Hints:
alpha+beta
Amino acid sequence: SVPTLIVHTKDDQVASHEASTRAAERIPGARFVSLETGGHLMVGQSKIVRDTLAGFFAERRDRRVEAMAS
């Protein structure tokens, strides 16, 4: 499987929040993060997006290190 993170805002006027939710449900192991506001460009959400990405990448790194150690 491919590590997948979908971050989406509920007030996005370009892409459907519901479609993103469904996409995450169809991708095995996907993580879905829903934000209340920010629109399509996630304006004002840079800290939470940055922290979410950092955590996602750190988890992947840690899993890879564990796999290499065993």
